[in-house]
Amino acid sequence: MHAQCSGTSGEPASPPLIAVTCGEPAGIGPELCLRLPERFSAKAPFRLLVLGDRGLLAERARHLGLAVTLRDWTPENPFPPLLADTLDVLHFPLTAPAMPGRLDPANARHVLNLLDRAVNGCMSGEFAAMVTAPVHKGVINDAGVAFTGHTEYLAARTGTPHVVMMLAGKGLRVALATTHLPLKDVPAAITPESLTATLRILHADMRCKYGIDAPRILVAGLNPHAGESGYLGREEIEIIAPTLQRLRAKGMTLLGPLPADTMFTPPLLAQGDCVLAMYHDQGLTALKYATFGQGINVTLGLPIIRTSVDHGTALELAGTGAADPGSLFAAVEQAAEMVARTRKMHCA
């Protein structure tokens, strides 16, 4: 059972506390976090807590001329008085000074410490959800830590054997059957077992986190033209179609396998509540074209609520003030909506 989906009678005694991790300190994450008070006033029905280095945030605020007050947060006083233009910060010191746009592997552990604290807080019930600013996979690996992305890391930290990465925005939701894999490894990763697990999670979280009683899922084929009756590949015939048929027999509404080049046309999208693409760029190219700057990333299947921005660290923009906070704002709003919805439901 999802920890965040337990039903409750009456309103909770305290507002939901949502943790926001600053991400890569050399990127745009810290300055995006500093702009949260612009969107979320003291009257919001939830509270935000930023996890990061307080000195870095203060320096970046001065550099950019942002009028925001940083207030130290402690677990002993989780809900201090609400003040306008104030950001509550749980301080995690950097290992080395951080300069905008200059990656330093010495700070990789700092980035992971932020994630670990947010996960622990969500698992214990201290935090209602976590929202993540972007991290840089390359510099974490340069520090000697094998890291393929937030999705896989959070799955390991929560002991979740199978999770689903989904991006969403402007009414479009695209989940992935495989995530950060080289293209040559994708076909072998699409098995009846993995596809079944993915579709079950997608179906369950469409109901729990999005409130859709009977989700309609559009499922892409792997090959061009969904295999062209086997002439362009047999994965559709041997794996995807039989799996969909078995799950339809259990009550799921699944359309496919569909040719990916026409799946994102309005007539087909109107027939579904979400899309399942077989690999990263097959689904996310269309999603990011349609929603970039307002899209978000959601990890489905976790025992916690986690949303994120749909973009990277944008090192070239760090420290310039030109980074658009729209995706972070949307990720916070989506997390808050999920918390409110799941608190009213019982999600198995």
Automatic annotation (TrEMBL):
EC category name: oxidoreductase
Annotated cofactor note: Binds 1 divalent metal cation per subunit. Can use ions such as Zn(2+), Mg(2+) or Co(2+).
Keywords from the named record: Cobalt, Cytoplasm, Magnesium, Metal-binding, NAD, NADP, Oxidoreductase, Pyridoxine biosynthesis, Zinc
Q: Which cofactor does it need?
A: Zn(2+); Mg(2+); Co(2+)
Pathway it acts in? Cofactor biosynthesis; pyridoxine 5'-phosphate biosynthesis; pyridoxine 5'-phosphate from D-erythrose 4-phosphate: step 4/5
Give the EC number(s) under which this enzyme is classified: 1.1.1.262
InterPro entries in the record, alphabetically? PdxA (IPR037510), PdxA_fam (IPR005255)
So where does substrate get bound?
H150, T151, K288, N297, R306
> Subcellular localization, per the record?
Cytoplasm
MF GO annotations: 4-hydroxythreonine-4-phosphate dehydrogenase activity
Record-linked Gene3D superfamilies: Isopropylmalate Dehydrogenase
One Pfam family cited in the UniProt record for this chain: PdxA
Reaction(s) this enzyme catalyzes, per UniProt = 4-(phosphooxy)-L-threonine + NAD(+) = 3-amino-2-oxopropyl phosphate + CO2 + NADH
Q: Where a divalent metal cation is bound, by residue?
A: H180, H225, H280
Taxonomic superkingdom: Bacteria
**Keyword NAD set for record:** yes
Name the family.
Answer: Belongs to the PdxA family.
Q: Give the misc comment.
A: The active site is located at the dimer interface.
State what this protein does: Catalyzes the NAD(P)-dependent oxidation of 4-(phosphooxy)-L-threonine (HTP) into 2-amino-3-oxo-4-(phosphooxy)butyric acid which spontaneously decarboxylates to form 3-amino-2-oxopropyl phosphate (AHAP).
Its subunit composition reads: Homodimer.
Q: What is this protein called?
A: 4-hydroxythreonine-4-phosphate dehydrogenase
Please name the gene that encodes this protein. pdxA
